[in-house]
Amino acid sequence: MPLDWTLINHDALKLIDFDGLLCGVERFDCNTFRDEVSRVEREEGRWSAEQRECLRFVGAVLTMMLRADQPAEPFGPMFVMDGQRSAIPADFPKEELLSLQAWALSLQDPELRARFLDVLWIQARSFPAAQGAVDAYIASALRLEHPKDWSSCHKRLERALRLAAGLGKGGADLRLRVLSEIEAMLHRHRGTDPLYLTLRLTRLLLEFKHGDACQFAGFALAAAASAEAANDFWRAKDYYQLTADCHRAGGDAAAEGPALRQSAECLVKESELAYKQLGRGAITAASVLSDAVEAMRQAPGGRDRAAELHERLLVLQQESLTELKPLSSSVDAEALVKIAVTAVRDKSLAEAILALCKMVKPPSISKLKQDVHEQARVAVLGSLFSSEVLNSRGRVVARPPRLEAGANDPKDDGLRWRMFRNAHLTRSLNVQAMLNPARLEVLSAHGPDRLDLASLIQYSPWIPPGHAESILRALLAGFQGDMLVAGHLIPSQLEAMVRHVVESRGGATSMLEPGGLQPERPLSALLETPEAAQAFGADGVFELQGLLVDPLGTNLRNEVAHGLRDDSGMFDYEVLYAWWLLLKFCVLTSKLVERQQTAMVTTALPAKDGGQEGAPTGERDANSLDGVTKDRGEK
């Protein structure tokens, strides 16, 4: 329900005394404040109509998610559900916010003050609000400083820094103050914190070229050694990488190489650990060791060690074939959620996203046909009548006929529509019970940013030239639940990807008409080409047709392109599924190319007998998904 701004004013807000109301909470952050405000708002007889509306306003502002690494849009919705979302800054009118600036500046609690002043800055560009927000963020970060629960503190310092940096020359003193506070915090911990506080603080200082990078390298090295001693090899890898980055920033090139080799050795140790663990085994060990080989090859002085590790990798890859087993079972939605979350939990970001990409498969055409005919046998009337397919505006766009007895051709409209309908139900279950819970787990555990995703898709041959930035923004928006952005980007990027894949395989993507005109072939025609079938497989093509372009299916590409979907329609689970497809296509093809490049380089190294190692056999086509996900069975 929209806020009633006639009831929200400075005096009503002052009468509530939020500083006193929230002083007794256990944790001083916006999430906890939001829960407390929501609780007291429900108390009957305590509040006037004005005060209750003020409580709703404050709760809405506190519900936004802070995205400190995105200075242009630092707040996003905390949740999206059933076509609805929580508040974002654009929901609050500029003039109404400006009338509340004095109240926001008077707030004593720094967390509250930072949130409201930052929203004022975003919506109304009030310079005093921006200055006050920076000071408040610093105070809130210092109060939340904790070596284990580090992310809240770091986010507020990063937001303060990026906000101050965005003020130009007028924010120079504020920027220096934030950097000094970050450096002071780093010196307090000196790499002794057990997680990632030192790493994230150091990265900010390196980005803004502040402080003694060589000294920071010592802190990072101490953190790396501590993580390695605790068998936390992923964290150790990151800290050794940070050590190398510090040496490079400090001009000490001689120390950079050893740190990079140590970082790669941590992957070797993680591979050895995975090999011994139940549920990971040779498959995971080979995947991690493949990354170790590539990292060691790129590290100065790591060529010989890379060749040695490659020999071990070949053994693991052969052994992993014995671990591939089909899985077929019937489970309820709650069990699926547990399976999905477990599949990505307690893994590195790369491992978790790879598991997310392999989590489900498109339903096979044969299975869809079998299910349609079984349903027709059980529910006879449903197959005897034609139906109507409506678009998102309620217009009739197709009338699939009755299902003819013995229909077997997926191009038969009666059969095709019923197959699309079953696929639609399967996607709904997959998104709600598996893909979205897994996405939220990855987001909560890692908060992937643009650079993280760029490293995972950088080798993909399926990304069209000049489209990498659009695809990165679409993927990042999807992870963060910003489906308004993702929903508008993804269909066009999937179409561009299909066009690029077909063209790269020699297929024609345009037509030659009289007069020399060469109009582009539409996506529906591209998906009918042999090249698309080779790349995506018959089941994958059928899935893309039903999801993107067929009026008998979801027709997402055309609905978005023609502006038929409103804002709430962008939060439909089909949009999130399309996001997952784009992520899967980019990550898996990138991973294939990365492994093939590693294999080609390492096989070119001198063998022990002085000859050349043989070229690897059985390699998969890097421009095809056929077989990419065969290490997971049917769900």
UniProtKB/TrEMBL annotation:
<dbReference type="Pfam" id="PF24098">
    <property type="entry name" value="DUF7380"/>
</dbReference>
<feature type="compositionally biased region" description="Basic and acidic residues">
    <location>
        <begin position="618"/>
        <end position="635"/>
    </location>
</feature>
<dbReference type="Pfam" id="PF13910">
    <property type="entry name" value="DUF4209"/>
</dbReference>
<protein>
    <submittedName>
        <fullName>DUF4209 domain-containing protein</fullName>
    </submittedName>
</protein>
<dbReference type="InterPro" id="IPR025209">
    <property type="entry name" value="DUF4209"/>
</dbReference>
<dbReference type="InterPro" id="IPR055804">
    <property type="entry name" value="DUF7380"/>
</dbReference>
<feature type="region of interest" description="Disordered">
    <location>
        <begin position="604"/>
        <end position="635"/>
    </location>
</feature>
<feature type="domain" description="DUF7380">
    <location>
        <begin position="4"/>
        <end position="172"/>
    </location>
</feature>
<feature type="domain" description="DUF4209">
    <location>
        <begin position="494"/>
        <end position="584"/>
    </location>
</feature>
